[in-house]
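From the shared-data thread, chain only:
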Amino acid sequence: MTRTPLQIPVFLVCWVASIAAMAVPVANATPNEDKPLNGSFEMIQVERGRVLNHGYFSFNKIMIIDGTVQGGLVCYGGQTTIRGTVTGNVTIIGGMLEIDQTAEIGGKIVTLGSPFVGPELPVDRHLDIPLKKPFYPGEIDFIEKLKRSVARVIITFLFSGILLFLIPHRVRQTGLEIRTDWIPTFFAGALTLVVFVFCFACSTIFFGYPVGALLFLVFALLFLIAGLFGLVGVLEAIASFVSRFLPSGWSFIHALFLACILFEILSLLPWLGLLFQWIALALGLGGVLLTRFGSNRDWFTHKKKVWLG
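Structure, as tokens:
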């Protein structure tokens, strides 16, 4: 295949530009004069009687609102306590929110993976999205871990086999891109992953508005489709490598099943397993991006790429 430079579709750049443009007013809504008076970097307090004529954004801080915030409030992490007035939406992501009975909230309250302490509110006023990890009373024994691993291998193999049966050409092209031009494919996927994470984070800022939830759902759907298709492409590349060492009577389906087992074993390695999963995700996204979901055509000119003999 003709080695082309790393090309990222323009729509990804537009995502970054448009989302960043929307996020600028929120990011600039924290002037130096709003630093806590007690000198503690971890606490930000709006005293009773004080009025902020703008919204507020904080990251991993302790927020105490006794006064008035004329705008929205967006907090990533930390703990937020509201006893005063917030005229806009309140969005808490990965933190904790406490609202006093005397608090006045003019907009909606959105808590994403954040515990909420306060009066019970109707659904149209409070959107709660829990992101709780499964809790296990003790360490999972070996048999339970083995059952989960076997289940993941079977599900992955069935999904990959179905996709390979329905669209074999696209899966093959994606795997071919990954195992042939893996360096540009990795960097393309890593950049795409960064863009997706950035878009996810920015869309959550506007969760109180319909456009925020819509953007989050769109990004989540695109990421899910691209990630799953890229995973199958990575498994195809691994299966092609494994097939070289199999007996002549074995088919590609056998190699694909062994690839699923190998993928699961590598994913279970301490520390290295997480690194392997991120590398596989980057390679998969890069393969999807550079081949346009396995069509092997350019994103805009629709010209088909050819492999040189």
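Confidence is low (pLDDT under 50) at residues 1-41, 134-138.
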